[in-house]
Amino acid sequence: MTPKRPARADLATLFERPRLDRTAPNRSAANFYRSAGAPGTNVAGVPIDSVESAVVAAVRMGYRIAAAQIERTERLGTRLRQAADNAAGPGADRKALDATEQLVFNTMMAGLSWFEGIASNRGNPLRRLATAEYRILGSLFGLSPVPNGSTAGAGSDTGCSRPNPVQSAPHAPADDSSSRSSRTLVRIRHAGERRAVQVRHFEMTGRVDAGQYPLFFYGRDLMGPTIEGRLIVTPQESPLLVLKISREASSGDWSAAICDPEGTQIGLIEIVL
Amino acid sequence: MRRAEPAPTSPEPPKIVKVAIIGGGCAGLAAAWELSKQPNFQVSVYEKSWRLGGKGASGRDDRGRIIEHGLHMWLGFYENAFKMIRECYEEVRKQEWGPGQSQPKNRLAHATFDDAFLAEPNIGVVGNQADGQTVWTAFFPPEKGIPGDPIDVQSNPFTIASYLLRCVDLLKALVQSVVAPAVDRVPGKARPDDRSALDETIDQAFGFDPTRSPEVLIDSITGGLRDGSLTLAAAMLQALTILENILHDFDQSAPAVGSALNVVKALLAQARKQLGDFVTLDENLRWKTEIVDIVMTIMVGLYRDRLLFDRRGFDAINDYDYRDWLRKHGATESAVASRFITGIYDLVFAYEGGDRLKPRLAAGVALRGALRMFFTYRGAMFWRMRSGMGDAVFAPLYKVMGLEHREDPQTGKQLLPVRFNFLHTLEEIRVELAPGGQPFVTRLAFGAVPVSPSVDDPARGALDIFGCWPNDNRRLIPSGDPPVPTPVTLTVEKDFDVVVFAGAVQDLGRLLRNQPVPPNWRPPDDQRQTVATMAMQIWVTESLEQLGWYAGPSVISALQPSAGGDLSFGTWADMTQTLPTERAWRAAAKRRSPEDDEAKSVAYFCGVFSDSHLDATAAEVLDSIPQILSKQLPVLWPSAFDQDGNATYRPISTMARVNATSSDRYSLSLPGTLGQRLSPLDRGVLNMTVAGDWTACGLDVGCVEAAVMSGKLAAFAITGDQPSLESIIGYDHP
Q: Is the pTM of this model over 0.80?
């Protein structure tokens, strides 16, 4: 129990501790950003006016970290390739090591297949997230960008706001099975020089009537010569691409619009000589 | 009414404020250090022991051996403590004190901070595996700077951005941890090639030797990718995405928040499934999986409990035990029981009543401590001293603060020396009320032992011939009959103006029990708020390698309790680096001891001491040590035991002690108790404040840094402006 003692008037003249503005830590997140060395609100170049700005800064930092990771992994890929050169040199061994490297990277991609599994569930909120992450991981492991049309989870039900050529076409069909892409087998017939041709991209939107569609392929030099050809579409077989390639045609990428008789573009095709 | 406001423009010289500091431990000395830098404060320290340091005290016996109170390591985030000791060593350098001085009055065990402190990047834990116990060690990459360096915008580790970057670096280093350190690791200095720790980790995991066969290379690639990249892809990127989503979605409509939470849960479930699959491939990955699980659970918990945006910071979850909080947010039981969590409990002796079956640690304190420990360290995660803490820390503080002529390095003003009064045991604090009801301390009564006149020598004082603290009070007390304490009474205004109580929390409760002070100034005399500890030192003739430990100097925690007994150590640290200073002491004292010079390594152990053994005698404890070691040491020193488990190493000497009374006991951070802590800024008694790691000092866990922060707060409470709260690093940490 506290004893009862008479108050001492002379104590009022004694030294007493100053009154303080603060008697406890200020542990708010915005304060967390403040430079510890000096009062103020400026830390790491980010003026902190509110918790919201702190959040934005943190998210930006998240992106910077992701970018740094990608850059580092690219360096790792470079080292792997250099190691292959150093270890086996040019020739069969090098190819074997390259093949191994490819195998390992494929294994890595398989290890990420659960993303695909999530993304394939229609209506799942993860689908959109997985789409974005798939691109990050693709870049992370040094793979070429995945074509938009084949990206898992990029369908219209994902709510993805990124423009999709298939979706944005004026006659986009409701039935996915009627649209055609490069995965569709395109047969090639040479009417000129029989130079090796690879169809890089083939896409037709809307319903396409059977018939022949004249094509004019343009290379990088739009003022240069074109390659003539035609596309023959029949109900029974896969489309047939007839090409009349000259010896002088330069190697590289060529592309052509597929148009109906009125000139409305109903598709496009890209080839590599 | 007079105030302690500095009045540099006043024509009259400022009045000298007399400060009485009760207790010469870390907190009391930190308060003394800060106040002694103000020209108008006259500080007197009253210490019940014959030496300074409190729980950190150490002394030299008559063979020069360092006898410690316990195992003392400084963590790389002890910014305030390092700042103080580095300032102190700057003065030591000016005075040209050091071990090689011919005059004993100029001797100290160390002449510089660099000589006194040594970076320790290797730490580890012991855990159980299917085939027995194993040791997991990790190299924590050195970070730029040295703790105590000025913090500016570019180097401020106390930002979320910095935490994220450190998280990436450290987690990657952890999951790919290796024992062998790489080259060019000088704490505080950037690598000459400007490469980061992450680059180094990648090199270690994916380094190629052209002379190796393709098969080895392929194995290396496969192992490295499985070990690092896949785990990281499944964990780190997800963790960052989770955090991004959390931050994006925070404070929006409830459905959005719920959706984000579902995303986090789904991702966690998937990531854990993937990690589980990897574990089946590689047993060693289980350990790393536990780390990832803990980190991801913490991120979920931070979000679910809105901790990043709670004005209370992590204090909001201090009613939970750390393990319970992790369970609440979905951590697997294996992660909760993992050695990494056990290591954190061991580090802060977080066992109620010293019972290792009762781990209890406030979740907020644990999280804050872990974040600061892992993400804000500079130089190295751990720093060890090249001698005892008494030699490396308290002796220079004692000598510097006691200097008759010392100038403030910033202002050039003459500073007043601090007076140290040893063997003063406080027996009464008298508090009286002013007419307005304000309490004032009016009298302090000590039971004091008169000390030898030689101690009044300001140049050497209570230190021995080598500038170290002796291990007993013989230097202070004149020989002859045992001294009888005589009362010493201090009166307000005449002897002191303001008091800093920096003693034990139990003593404060006892001394103020019947005084007219606010209730929160009478902490309950509850022994459960503290824990007894035990410590042991062994000098052996074998080197670490001969004992079977090849990972170099390390700190290993989470030692498994010895079966069938609750007397066991939690942490082992190799302290072989102290041997040279012990030999130097013997050389300076001209005392040869060939037996001691044979020592090739020294091991320090520490752990909690169960209250159920408090009745045991010191001899009984010492007798039980061989049995404890035979159970706990083989995993660390496999070559030191034969096949039957009999020790084959040759100890030169063994020192053991139990710290079970009053201020010797370690302050616990028990769940649900942190809100009751008394703050040094509390103005409940108008001419008194408190200091100690048991106060509400911002860190709220028993350690040197908390004590120093508390001491600085006490100084601020008295001066009103020095040191500023902003300069107390980490005080405002969430």
A: no
